[in-house]
Amino acid sequence: MMKFSRILIVFLIFTQAFFSQVREVKDLDANWKFHKGAIENAFQVNFNDSKWETVTVPHDWAIKGPFDKDIDKQVVAITQNGEKVASEKTGRTGSLPHIGTAWYRNKFTLPKNSKNKKIILLFEGAMSEPQVYLNGKKIGEWAYGYSYFYFDVSEVIQEGENTLAVQLTNEAFASRWYPGAGLYRKVSLIVKNKESINQWGTFITTPFVTSNEAKVNVKTKVSVPNSRLITTIFDAEGNKVTTLESSLSFGNEFDQNIKVDKPKLWSPETPYLYTAVSQLFVDSQLRDEVSTRFGIRDIKYEANKGFSLNGNVTKFKGVCLHHDLGPLGAAVNKAALRRQLTILKDMGCNAIRSSHNMPSFEQLELCDEMGFLFLAESFDEWKKPKVENGYHRFFDEYAEKDIVNLVHATRNHPSIVMWSSGNEVPDQWGEAGVKRAKWLQDIFHREDPTRPVTVGMDQVKAVMESGFGALLDIPGLNYRVHLYDEAFNKFPQGFILGSETASTVSSRGIYKFPVVQEKNKQYDDFQSSSYDLEACSWSNVPDEDFVLQDDKPWVIGEFVWTGFDYLGEPTPYDEKWPSRSSYFGISDLAGLPKDRFYLYRSRWNTKDETLHILPNWNWEGREGETTPVFVYTNYDSAELFINGKSMGIQKKNNATPQNRYRLMWMDVKYQPGTVKVVAFDNEGKPVAEEEIKTAGKPHRIVLEADRSTIKADGKDLSYITVSVVDKDGIPCPTATNQLKFSVKGEGVYKAACNGDATSLELFHLPTMKLFSGKLVVLVQSKTKAGTMELTVSGKGLKTEKLVVSTSN
Ligand code: GAL
To answer: Can you give the residue ranges of the Glycoside hydrolase family domain (predicted)?
Structure first.
């Protein structure tokens, strides 16, 4: 009896919440049943899924591995990388078991009086080729795993219990990186009245912006003629700013111009957000209400001047990001995304490119809030293939639909300042490709006349000849620093974007000797040197981009490949198992900064001091050998001391790109002890110092949480950096101790990652080796507030504990 009444109360609360407002959004996140493998009748309502695994969505079915060389083994020549002869490649899509068919099933209940409602089933991404069934009937399908799409299920959905079944299929060789697998983004149900505002039907732009006033244009598509729309604008503090009522619509669209006095403008430095609440009335009855967050900002792209935001010329200090979240795989998690952006903000980064596909809604929301400019990309392939089962299979049928959904779903984010219709598409060659570029750009323009379109181009000579580059709003060059001047002269736009730059490779905390610039360099341990002088045949080290950015006012910024390491594409070791993740990141797969982080920080973060020494100073066996010391700093000059002895003063100079941006003492001979650097200001006064020391044996574990209180929502994460120090507290930079983790209390152990691109240890198991003295443990909250305790232990080390609180 007790139990029954509890169920009744929960049901009543749920029913009330569901219909107390004119529209409700219900996340379908809990209690999904999951099965890997093709099953013929799994869409049927009475199919018995009781033996299937229970999972929550977002979910990535492949991230728990195991890593397996054979999963993505292929014998190919990657023409993209200039290869002519085929060879065996592994790890290109992460070597995780993402290929094949799988099913998800979810039973959910709709309360009584759901009849006469309009009900939308929204997928924010499904990897991939989703076939969607509701109550045993097929309601639709999609193809591209990164697209947002929805179905109107009003006719098929029923009061009481409903059964949703989704079949997903990942073909082999469908991607150039780890795509993830499954319902890796949110699924939700939107229940509203038949007379309502259309899905993604609101489009807010700010066509006139001064510090005194702004014109906010709100276009709203509705399902019903003869209605009335009231749009009210609220400021970030929730105060009403202004309101406008309209009863005049054009077709099914209202078009309102609303004046905001003394607007607070959105920018990366001041990410101020307003909210527009749109209320739809029919016969004086409120029928629908939608809230849309937006920013007031003005963007312009002008010849020779470049990009201006609110009248200020602004260069893109950007990074490219793939969508995977390292140890979490592709399953979207807001805490993980927020941490990435926090790390990037500290580096001074102001822009993100969602390479090479649609970003998650969560990432865009965070970029709006935290202040990042956003280049939202769509495709890595058009009609001509790069990989056997890539997007070219869907291009004709889906390209327009995919772009329309991208634009409609995300156009109100002030962070988005540019679209990209493609990346290094082989269609850069040939006349048909020129037409395709124009066709796609026109679709973007039709759907959003306020933002320009780019393509990341690598076939620069070809696109200069064919007209492909000239027709784009923004010519984006991927690498090819030697062609910037020529492209600027040939193209009519009057500026060039570094849509993809650097592709420098390095492994955190790994240094190789002698210290020389190299292309495609390989070592026996399958790591790359963190002196930041190694790149690919097609790419370059960061300093070469810096020269262009600093010396050419018409270069409007860069998007570095990449902000973080990602699963897959282990260049330069794609022929060398067990390399399975990238070396390109400024930070590693765990989000731990490599040395390169400080090189970018020294240039991009103009507010905070950067003074960073490399390499580490633990080189037993190298005594007396040449061990160059680099310092990445915002200061112009500095003096270096080894065990108190001066190695001289270095000053940035124009001899080479490296001399311009790094301080380098090339002749230092290694002796254990202390490396100290003293930096000088412009008048030569010592203003800052930093030192590193040779460490003894690992003695004690050190735990440091990025956030010590997290939300008790069952989703939030704390990232705990684990390192070891010697008996004097000096960090041990080469430690590789095997550690064990356990969590008790109101939280769970989620994953660990050490950033080693060759590690086959599984992220979700509670043990991992340190890599270059560090790793990161992720702990996740439960839904009850309280505390959890993480214990980390390792042989011969003092066990360490850390408490993380969770609150509602
Ligand atoms: C680019 C490509 C990226 C990545 C990168 C590696 O050509 O656009 O997706 O493959 O090279 O350097």
So the answer is: 701-802
- What are the DSSP calls for 42-55, one per residue? TTSTT---TTSEEE
CATH 2.40.340.10 fits 700-807, yes or no: no
The count of C-alpha atoms lying within 13 angstroms of the C-alpha of 358, restricted to the half-sphere facing its C-beta, is: 26
Report residue 250 as tokens.
């054009």
- Find out whether 438 and 481 touch, Cβ atoms under 8 Å: no
CATH number of 611-693: 2.60.40.10
Residue 172's pLDDT is 97
Ligand 1 shell residues, CB under 6 Å: 80, 423-424, 458, 478, 500, 503, 536, 539, 561, 569
Q: State the Cα–Cα distance between residues 272 and 371, nearest whole angstrom.
A: 9
> Using one digit for the tens of pLDDT, what is the confidence trace for 35-92?
999 999 999 999 999 999 999 999 999 999 999 999 999 998 888 778 889 999 999 9
- Give me the sign of the Cα torsion angle 559, 563, 568, 572: positive
Output the residue whose Cα is nearest ligand 1's atom 3.
561
CA distance 450 to 501: 26
Atom number, ligand 1, closest to the C-alpha of residue 456 = 8
Instruction: Give the DSSP letter string of 611-628.
Output: EEEES-S--TT-TTSB--
CA distance 296 to 206: 6
Nearest to 381 by CA among 211, 173, 216: 173
Q: Where are the domain boundaries for CATH 2.60.120.260 in the chain? A: 23-62+98-193
Q: Where are the alpha helices (DSSP H) in 253-348?
A: 334-347
Give the C-alpha separation, 223 to 234, whole Å.
Answer: 25
Q: Which amino acid is at 506?
A: S
- Containing 806, the helix (H) or strand (E) segment is strand 800-807
The burial of 151, by beta-carbon neighbours within 10 Å (0-12 exposed, 13-18 middle, 19 or more buried), is given as middle
Residues in Cβ contact with 707 at an 8 Å cutoff, skipping those fewer than 6 apart:
718, 719, 804
CATH domain 199-294 topology: Immunoglobulin-like (2.60.40)
Q: Report H helices in 371-430.
A: 395-410
Supply φ then ψ for residue 35, to 5 degrees: -145, 130
Whole-angstrom Cα distance, residue 564 to residue 141? 33
Tokens of 621: 């066996």
Given 124, 195, 500, 639, the catalytic residue: 500
pLDDT of residue 14: 40
